[in-house]
Give the backbone structure.
Amino acid sequence: MLRPYAATDEPAAIELWRRTWQRHYPHIDFSARVGWWRERWRNELVAAATITVAECDQAMVGFVTVDPRTGYLDQIVVAPELWGSDLGRALLDQAKCISPAHLAVHVNQDNARAIRFYQKHGFVIAGSDVNPRSGAPLHLMRWRIAGG
């Protein structure tokens, strides 16, 4: 089930973010980054983005954050046990509803699984950047409706 984010979802969203990123990048201590992430979540994402939460059996299993003014998709997070399911597609479809003309997302260049996912759903690599916190190289990926 997809639904709008509520302030009471914050602890579950923070933990899902930590758990998911830790699984993908086990050599990085994401528990040490939770304080930074909580501040960023509150001050940047909750303040500006439309956030949709995915639930299963009353537990958060995913979320997507999109700034409807810019079309920037900052986060799409799916619980690791649901990787490969249709949940990522459902969240991405919701992002396309929030910003129906275009979306942009930065993806770590070493995250081949995410790059394949976005390409499968119509995104193209449109540029490169560097993560200001980690220094990791990023792809800027864009999606536009046909003719848009």
Summary: The first strand starts at residue 2 and ends at 4. The domain at 2-144 is CATH 3.40.630.30 (Aminopeptidase). The two ends are 30 Å apart (CA to CA).
